[in-house]
């Protein structure tokens, strides 16, 4: 037993590196016994919707197909008892008894929902990111899940795209660190352990670069941009040993990712050495038909030959591969290879040793939604908030004041979890009203809705597909605003919870206007006009264009969609029990016309003046500055941090050498606080145009009030490298400038030379 465990642990650690020479004998023996149909069956991933025992919603005849050996995995079925029904069908009723993979979208927590990924990323705290994923894995596996369709690591530089909420933001360096931490959290170091699950990095590749921010839209990008800006987080995931990869809906260089051999084989397997399995996105194989690549048989053969192993829901593989084999359009070897990769994943998960490994009926009560998990969700949420503005130090509030708590999101349980929380339970979410009462029982809190999230009924219909998110009140907008203003006038301070409903971001939730809806803007202006101090708690799944609100004399705390502990965590920060420490991981534009806008843009041959002044025949706009509303890496604290005395340990280095930057950071304010010290690098001269600066290191530190610390960040030889015109990863000799500071506008700088 011990030996087996050890073997699994070693296998899990080296999963990314199973080579032809290291084949798993059990898998090879099984392959020998399998018919062609059974091999093709393993490539089929279905979703039974209502559960195999009670009927089918999406995939048809699931039970019969499992018995016939025509299913490799299921998703959308959960709970040890329900999963057992399916697993027993596979193990006891199919000829070879091969267990099923059981997948799920555990995107930001299983039942204990924590902040949306864009929020969690804003913590810049890799320990917390890992702990979050660990908790999600423990809960999901307790419910019978052994495979997670996460992390999504798509770089996104267009906040119109609704799925920006699901990723880590715009930066390849930070995105890579978050990919690694998530995979460590989900997979642990023993994939066969009962509390770890296979991760699936998605959506490979470039899904976040959809044209015009419209979901599922085309992507067309140079290889230079791909390799330097968009591919690093996927590669980091592969290097971290991710067990599976999901192909994306979009095309890459004119070929949809799901049928793109350059992407799925030449790059992923041959160049990066990935040896896990590749699954399509939901019917993305079939979608190659409307993409314009042929009929179902043609696109299925294309996908298999490209290196796709598993077909999600579309059943193109199941229904056409045999014919394609007979017609010589695919080989049996290709089918066997795909099948092998799926069987290897099952083996490494420990499913062959014990198909019921994740099906302990006692675990859900023990492991899901525990006190500890909810406490962690509360911590994660508080760490994800970003203080955007704090006029007159309105925040934190004292706990004994008279507070007018207003806004359409202040008491809106349905909007706390955020997008892509299908396993969460909205009824368990803590509203802000409840959180305030929990944390500040001696405050006088009066609530008014004040406005609808939007007054637009048609828009509300589009948003409300998964249930009521935008609920349009029977009262007129004027009556609602008046009621809120009355409360405000009689209060010491106003807290207005405003922004986006959860489904205003997420899949197929792109917007062309990313401002706060007009109904809420009117409310905000009316509240400020009372002259009372106003704190805005801003909820959204994306950067919003808020130049008007940022210009008001208010405090603004950006809270994303915080998850099941929303209200408690917001109260913790608003009342000063936790000093906000989050930093934006994506640039906030002034207006949609600036998009795409990101800090690592290139200088151009005609850079605009640094001071944002318009100059004719320079790269700028007639009607807007170039600078963003809020830069990448930005976030305030209740205290202040000062940076001084930046030093490099060397003036010049040779190829292959490291260099360290040290800076003194001092907490000069009145609160203890955490700061994210950020290091950016400019490669002054290159054989291809360099970005103005790029994040290459960061450290999150705690400083007591009045305390100073020296912080050292070391640049490794790889941190100086980039992909050149030949796509070689090189560092070129010459001058480099290091910038260190509190956000991507960091001004302290020192130069060194690479010889
Ligand atoms: C999404 C994926 C998800 C899959 C399965 C698709 O629509 O793009 O991110 O994993 O559905 O639910």
Question: Can you put this structure into words, describing what you see?
Answer:
The protein is an alpha/beta fold and 755 residues long. Among the domains are: 366-584, 3-Layer(aba) Sandwich (Rossmann fold); 639-754, Immunoglobulin-like, CATH 2.60.40. Helix content is 30%, strand content 17%. It is built from 23 helices and 26 strands. It has an 8-stranded parallel sheet. Strands 11-16-15-14-12-13 form a 6-stranded mixed sheet, with helices on both faces. The protein has a 5-stranded mixed sheet with strand order 18-26-25-20-21, with no helix packed on it. It is globular, with a radius of gyration of 26 Å. The termini are far apart. The structure holds beta-D-glucopyranose. Beta-D-glucopyranose binds at residues 105, 149, 202, 281-282, 507. Beta-D-glucopyranose (BGC) binds at residues 105, 149, 202, 281-282, 507. Keywords: Glycosidase, Hydrolase, Periplasm, Signal. Its main location: periplasm. It holds the Pfam family Glyco_hydro_3_C.
Considering the chains and any ligands shown, give keywords for the structure:
755 residues; alpha/beta; Rossmann fold; Immunoglobulin-like; eight-stranded parallel β-sheet; six-stranded mixed β-sheet; 17% strand; disordered N terminus; binds beta-D-glucopyranose
How would the blueprint of this fold be written?
Blueprint: H1 2-13, H2 25-33, H3 36-42, E1 44-46, H4 62-67, E2 73-75, H5 80-93, E3 101-104, H6 117-121, H7 126-142, E4 147-148, H8 172-187, E5 198-204, H9 223-230, H10 232-239, E6 244-247, E7 251-252, E8 255-256, H11 261-271, E9 277-279, H12 288-291, H13 296-306, E10 311-312, H14 316-326, H15 332-348, H16 363-367, H17 371-384, E11 386-390, E12 402-406, H18 432-439, E13 444-448, H19 457-463, H20 477-489, E14 493-499, H21 518-529, E15 534-539, H22 547-550, E16 555-558, H23 566-574, E17 641-648, E18 652-653, E19 659-667, E20 673-683, E21 694-703, E22 708-715, E23 722-723, E24 729-730, E25 734-741, E26 748-754
Parallel strand pairs: 1-2, 1-10, 2-3, 3-4, 4-5, 5-6, 6-9, 12-13, 12-14, 14-15, 15-16, 18-26
Antiparallel strand pairs: 7-8, 11-16, 17-19, 19-22, 20-21, 20-25, 23-24, 25-26
Bound molecules: beta-D-glucopyranose.
Residues 105, 149, 202, 281-282, 507 line the site of beta-D-glucopyranose.
